[in-house]
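Friendly challenge for the regulars: who can give me the structure tokens for this chain first? No prize, just bragging rights.
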Amino acid sequence: MNSLLDNALRVAAIGAGATAIMDCWLLLLQRLGVPTLNFAMIGRWVGHWRSGVFAHDAIAAARPVRGELAIGWLVHYATGIAFATLLISVVGMAWTEAPTAAPALGIGLVTVLAPWLVMQPAMGAGIASARTKSPAQNRVRSLANHAIFGLGLYLAAFVIAHAITLFNTH
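First reply, four minutes later:
Bragging rights claimed.
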């Protein structure tokens, strides 16, 4: 493989790995009775784009979209890979060979702006969940989720870097 493809695969693996770590966190929260993301609603939101509808008063009340859960999961993982790409574009590809936690956590926290300023308003929740029953609690939950995602970026990069090193020495 060429280095461009190697780099793209490494960044995609870091993004998918970080997203999977975030999903484990969300599963834990769900098991503890804490409300978490419903990826079908993300799929419903994105599914309505085909008809030119980008914003809703309440996404749950919008017409369901065929395959919305699958679309939601696909968008979720694609977003995680895009955010990993953002991280690498900021810190450089060399970071993937010797990752450190601070840049990953920083990008993870910055990515909370996407749901706060784009997704939540477009899905009817208002800027940073302002139109929900408990906006402060939802904001803290979003920050925690994105901090976990940032930690996931670091952990995924760390594991991948060590796996590649191990593979190349044997």
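Residues 3-169 form one domain. The first helix runs from residue 3 to 31. Your move, everyone else.
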